[in-house]
Structure prediction request, 331 residues.
Amino acid sequence: MMDSEQIRKPVEASRPAISLFLPVYNEEENVAEMHAKIAAALDAVGKSAEVIYVDDGSSDGSLEELRKVAAADGRVRVIALRRNYGQTAAMSAGIDAAHGEILIPMDADLQNDPADISKLLEKLDEGYDVVSGWRIHRKDKLFTRKIPSWIANRVISSIGGVHLHDYGCSLKAYRRDVLKDVRLYGEMHRFIPIYAAWAGARVTEIPVNHLPRIHGSSKYGISRTIKVIFDLITIKFLASYQTKPLYVFGSFGLIAFLLSVAATVWAMILKYGYDVSFILTPLPVIAIVMLAISIQFFLMGLLAELLVRTYHESQDKAIYAVRERIGAFED
Prediction:
């Protein structure tokens, strides 16, 4: 195997018009057929393009198949991550490596149709910054995939304020400047349209094809739904309190303080109005505990304010580690 430094080549001075990037995890049987469809679709579009495959620590022969594809097509670059980090980290790696003016992510399982790329580009030309795919005729199981997805999309649209029918569709198109400051964590790649809308981007969606899986098995399970719920809570917090966390912590602190005051007042009424000793009621303990909790919430809010300021001035730090790079990359 060649050393990673030996396989690096200088990148072209001009950016390609399109950067297509695909996270790949154990898709050995799909790689060759997928790339053939991608190559045909890009040829039909007629614009300069690069294709970035991010191997997310595959344990099968996916990386070897990607090497063959890269050797046969000069538009292809491959990033092999050191282990399986998950789809969000793999997509983040693709975004970081992309040079194109338009960035298009998609799945490598042959369920997204590369022929829809031209439709996404046509919609972008209407003045939109983000075009999201909508799998109207989704080829997935009803109870384990479709119904949970339908519910999740309704909830995400309501909380995020960007009304899309299909947040889970990987096939989307973004203008480069929309993604330049996006940092992804957890399962938050599906929320990129929300981040973009917060930054003032024009977001829309179009129907796209969804094909049944032929080779391999789905990598998604019910545990992913749980992760999305937690990320959705984070999104809601960021939407309301990203730059003012003291508001949320201070609110809980104020509630705890008021409970402490109420418990103190009631204990005093019982003591001096009804001659009930402090040791015969839990109110003094409740008052002390609530006071301590309120102080903790206020201090946590102040600490969060400091962290927010640090965050906005911190260094860029990737959430993945690259094992090797194949193709042309900048040092």
Notes: The CA atoms of residues 129 and 201 lie 6 Å apart.
